[in-house]
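FW: tagging you since you asked about this chain on Friday. Here's the raw sequence from the shared folder, copied in full. Didn't touch anything.
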Amino acid sequence: MAQRSAPWLGLFALAVYLFLYAPVATMVAMSFNDSISITLPWGGFTTKWYGKALTNTQAWGAFFNSVRLGLVVGLLSSLIGLLTALAFRRAFRGKSPVLTALLMPILLPSIVLAVGQTVLWNLLGLTTDLWTSTLLGHLVYTVPFAFVMIYPRVYRFDPNIEAAAMDLGAGPFTAFRTIVLPRIMPGVIASMLFCFTLSLDEFVRTMFLIGAQNTLPMYLWSIMLTDPSPETNAIATLSVCFSLAVVGIAMLIGARDGGATAGGH
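HL: got it, structure written out here
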């Protein structure tokens, strides 16, 4: 029975992969189209749209906004996630409800949180901006992911090692800095890179909270509405390549961390 159903499972898996990646593959292919149309007809092969994309000052400005925001979000998310993971090493009253509330932003639709944050921001009479409302909106989204990535590494760490260091005269901060942090640092770095990527590609929350400034997803959305061309595909393709590179680095760090942990055991 299992052998008879295996070909159907393979076809189903192929269909899923096509559903997921065919749009991206089409976008990449159309970025080389020698035509003013963003889609078909095919006018021949060209790389001129990449030349235009790489000299587009507005796109570069939006990209740098995204990168700067992503770096801050990645750093703050991982710091908050690390401190929260350390707090969850100990038992305290209400631990389960607090954990549920912490992970809730992962489960809620992004547009619901974005609208709620916008309403709250307006009620407070504050101006939406890249470094205030957008930053906080991204943190609400990324901190749960940072916690999920860091907490298993903190949980696996043997507290007896830390206690032994303190018995030998090390203070709590010294024991954490010299014993705990080096063992969990790969997870923290992977969390930073992952949260950076989440912020870099975030659109819905950014659209509601950014105000008059631009990030790369916002810029791509605006030119899709006003002046779509294969240059749009080229910019989007370069953005995907950059995001994949960051995710690849995070996966390599995570794999090295897993290998080191297995070797240590």
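FW: The radius of gyration is 23 Å.
HL: agreed, and The domain at 56-264 is CATH 1.10.3720.10 (MetI-like fold).
FW: great, closing this out.
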